[in-house]
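Question (not urgent): is this output format expected?
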Amino acid sequence: MGEALACGGPLVEFEDGIPITWTNTNNGGPFAWVTTADPDVAPNETGGTGEAAIADADAFNVPGDPYDAELWTNSFSLATASAANLDLRWRHRQLNNSTFDIGVSDDGGATWTNLVNDTVGNPGGTAGDAASLDLTPWAGADDVTVRFRFQGDAWDYYAQVDELALSCIQPAITLTKTVGTVDGVCANTDTIVVEPGTDVYYCYTVTNTGNTALGLHDLVDDQLGTILDDLAFDLQPGASVEVLLSPVNITTTTVNTATWTAFNPDPVEADEAEATDDATVVVLANDTCDGAIEPATVYRSANSSHQSSNIILSRDTADKIAVI
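Got this back:
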C-alpha cells in the first residue's frame, strides 16, 4: 500500500490512516475525514478490504450544523502521460441533502472539475462501487490533485473512498546516433575524424523507455532528409531498434541532427514520443567540397530481449523489404 498517489504506484488503502502527504480539512465544520479504524464511525462499505477513508456526519455532526469535509490527494504529475485513469472504490450513504463530489484540479485547488457529483447515494449500496475516472483531459499537466468532498447539514450518514490506484500511459524513447567507418556495423562513437571522400556509416538506435508499445516510426535527419516515414514496427517497452545507413560519402565537415518520432495510429498520432541526437564527421584536409552527402540505402535491425531480426529497406523503393 502507498502513502502517495502516483502513476503506476501502489494502491492507497488507508491501512495506516490518512496519508500524511494528503490535505484533510473540515472547512470550519465539526469534522474532517478519518478512517474506518475509528470505532465511532461506520465500517468499510466501499467493497474494499481493510480500512477506508470516511467522512461521517452520523458520528460527528448534530442536526442543523453545516459541514464541508474535504480530502485532497497529494499533487501528482501527468506531465509525461498521454492518458491516465484513477481507479477507486467509493460509497456515499446519502440522507437529507448530503452530497459527495470527486473533483480534479490542475492549478493547486483554485478551480475544480467534478467527475462525480452524487446527491442520491451510489447504487452499489453496502458493497459500494468500483469506478474508473478518466484523467486524460489533464494529461501533460504537472500539478494534478483529486478532491473528495462531503457536504450537508444534518445526521447525513457518510462518504467513503478506498483502494485508489493511478494508471498512466507514458510514452518515452531515447535516441542514440553514432557514426563509423565499418560497413554493416553500428559504431559506438558520435564523432569521428576522416580524410575527404571517406565513406561513413550512420546508425540510429531508438529504445522504448516508456510503458506502452509504439507501432509507427518517423526518422528525419537534417542533412539526409526523411529516412523512415510511418514505418510499422511494434516497439515494446524496453526494446530497441537500429537503423544503419549504407555508405555516405563525406567530403566536408558535417554535423547533423536526427529526430525520431514514435507513436500509435489510433487515435491519430496517439502516445507520441520524440527524441533527438547528433553525430559529427570532421574532415581533415581539403575541407572545401560541396555536396557532402549522397543518398543511401537504409538497413534496419530490431533487437530486444525477445527477438532479433535483420531487415533491409531501400529508401528509393519503399515497398522493397527482404529478410537478410
